[in-house]
Amino acid sequence: MTLVLRKTQFAFRMLRRFGFARTSNCVLCKLLYAALRIPFRFDAWHASAPYACREYKHRVAAAANSIAPRVVVDIGCGLAEVLDHIRAPFRYGIDLDPGAIAAAQFLRGRRISLHVASALEPELIAQAVTERPVDLLIMTNWIHGFTTEQLVGMIEGLAAALDVKYLLVDFVRNNTLAACHCHRLEDVAALGEVVLSRDAGDDVRDLHLLKLHSRTAAAAPRTLVTSSRGIDA
Known about the structure:
Helix 6 (about 120-130) runs parallel beside helix 7. Helices cover about 40% and strands about 20% of the residues. It has helices at about 1-40, 45-50, 55-65, 80-85, 100-110, 120-130, 150-160, and strands spanning about 70-75, 90-95, 115, 135-140, 165-170, 190-200, 205-210. It has two domains: about 1-45, no CATH class; about 55-210, 3-Layer(aba) Sandwich (Rossmann fold), CATH 3.40.50.150. By secondary structure, it is α/β, with parallel strands linked by helices. Strand 2 (about 90-95), helix 5 (about 100-110) and strand 3 form a beta-alpha-beta unit. The longest helix has about 40 residues, at about 1-40. The protein contains seven helices and seven strands, in the order αααβαβαβαβαβββ.
């Protein structure tokens, strides 16, 4: 009963904030993704948070489009919904979940180049991403599972391997989520200049777009993933 009440409250909040069309799209996408989980067997949280249901995904896409990128790489792309809303000639999606990548290929066709890999494998990702430089690297909805030291190491390794110009990340606010690492802008200040900061629209995190100083950093240390789940889980 509690679950039904929560879902009803969520639907009413969506209706008040975004109207009937987007709320209906949210519901339909949830049903579609739930059905796709049967053949593709991807993690359940991908199905629970479609693009239409999550304002932060809209704001990630808007921030990406604000710099008119030519080449975009989204690490942890899931079903590649955000990439599908970014206007770029070359779009690459990377995710650990083979089922999510298979489902994304089914949904997006050949519009987006999709690959199974970990953020801790910059060389493997570099082999998949054939266009250089990468104008924008997106890392959102999963970096809260890593310590600041691990995160900086990953960014440095990916930036060097992919020749990255801009980085888009989301930082969880303090005391908003249990069992997560809350990063601060000063933690990544040495990596680049902040050109955009804004709330993600969910009272949980903020989005930050950085223009990276250097694209020649050493590769990131190989550290085990502490969490593969997004905030929406």
